[in-house]
Amino acid sequence: MVAEMKRQAANVIVHSVGGVFIVAGIGAGFVPLVPGVVLIVIGLYIMSFRSAWLRSKLTWARNRFPRFDARVTQLESRFRSIKSKVFFWS
Questions:
Q1: pTM: predicted TM-score of the whole model, two decimal places
Q2: Cβ(50)–Cβ(14) under 8 Å?
Q3: H/E/C letters for each residue in the chain?
């Protein structure tokens, strides 16, 4: 019961944080300060922690675009350290 509640809480947090990045990315498309595409990609990556469909699309993109794969691999190590600190129960 407690494990299920922790899993659901983690899902809500991950999707909320990812959603914030996606909305910020869409909003940044109208403001020339931050590239909106970067924020959208970050949001989708964060949401891929809990979504099999997004994970499969990320795998496809990594196979299709090798430079993207190198950059994602580099960013994954940073996100893993942040994720372990923030989402300590996952």
A1: 0.67
A2: yes
A3: CHHHHHHHHHHHHHHHHHHHHHHHHHHHCCCCCCCHHHHHHHHHHHHCCCCHHHHHHHHHHHHHCHHHHHHHHHHHHHHHHHHHHHCCCC
* CA dist., res. 7 & res. 59, Å (int): 24
Side-chain half-sphere of 12: how many Cα atoms within 13 Å? 6
Q: Which residue has the tokens 């994954």?
A: 76
- The residue type at 26: I
pLDDT, tens digit, 9 for 90 and up, residues 32-42? 777 887 788 88
CA distances (Å), 13 to each of 49, 58, 72, in order?
11, 20, 22
- Degrees to nearest 5, angle at CA 15 with 32 and 87: 105
